[in-house]
Fold this sequence. Notes:
Blueprint: E1 2-4, H1 18-27, E2 32-35, H2 44-53, E3 57-68, E4 71-78, H3 85-111, H4 118-125, H5 132-141, H6 148-156, E5 169-170, H7 171-180, E6 184-187, H8 190-193, H9 199-204, E7 209-214, H10 219-232, E8 235-239, E9 257-258, H11 259-278
Parallel strand pairs: 1-2, 2-3, 3-5, 6-7, 7-8
Antiparallel strand pairs: 1-9, 3-4, 4-6
Helix pairs in contact: 1-2, 4-5, 5-6
The protein binds adenosine monophosphate, fe (iii) ion (FE) (2 copies) and zinc ion (ZN).
Adenosine monophosphate (AMP) is lined by residues 13, 38, 131-133, 148-149, 152, 166, 246-247.
Amino acid sequence: MFADLHIHSRFSDGTYAPEEVVAEGRKHGFAVLALTDHDTAEGCAAAAAACAAAGMEFIPGVELTAEQDGHELHILGYGFDPTHALLLAQTEQFQGVRQQRIREMVARLNGLNVPLEADAVFALANCRAPGRPHVARALVAAGVCSSLDEAFERFLKKHRPAWVPKFKISATDAMELIHQAGGAAVLAHPGLNRVDEMIPDLVSAGLDGIECFHTKHSTATSQRYLEMADRLGVLVTGGSDCHGMNKGQPLLGSIRLPYLHVEQLKRRVAEIRTTANRTGAAPSPAIHLHP
Ligand code: AMP
Ligand code: FE
Ligand code: FE
Ligand code: ZN
């Protein structure tokens, strides 16, 4: 039995509807899937229903864009209550930040004499958590660029002319939010963010696991994080980071996480929930967005 615990849908910058994610996951023979859209858990209800209908297990997930010591890192949440009020309020804020950022990126493009309207990007994205891939798609649709890669290379990559930095939640607040919503917090694809030296501090601050297996991790990189997870006594997770057809080929099926790790994740989620209950789950402090 295998799982893919990192998948995006149309609710952020993936191209599959949650039901299509599940249909594809089923074709690949997965027993368990998690949906981890950027800054939203809106797709989880539909994915859960589709998994139930297909006799598969579903774990609610989310991928929060966070920041620690000036470095961007992505925190995955698993097993939380997707209807948790604080989680909904906070993700709504992040979505607002994303929408405003789209407007700013479009304004910069216009300043470069690239005719594009924010509404064209919003119409194409058709979701509350739009991102740079939607701007890239709009640039391709408008005939300005011939590929998504070209759009990123010319305009959207960090420090390129239409790039706009994103306001992010601190990693500590992201983990706290996930815990309050009853879930476990996992560091996504550390191999892509060069944050190794921060991991012990993140664990002290509440990190529950490390995404050791990821499409862009080499075997040696996965091994390094497996050893680190073992040394620090945290969970091991893994997923494809499939965005549907966004990156040419769907990545679903590239990572097959053994079920043992799902069992350990579920055990950790159960512990987080009993601890939260025992301490009376004090009303949550406000979580602020950090630049
Ligand atoms: P954002 O959250 O708006 O900063 O956008 C980040 C998303 O852009 C991530 O899902 C990346 O995988 C995606 N991305 C980054 N570079 C590229 C690229 N060259 N082509 C397509 N997608 C990309
Ligand atoms: Fe993405
Ligand atoms: Fe990510
Ligand atoms: Zn992702």
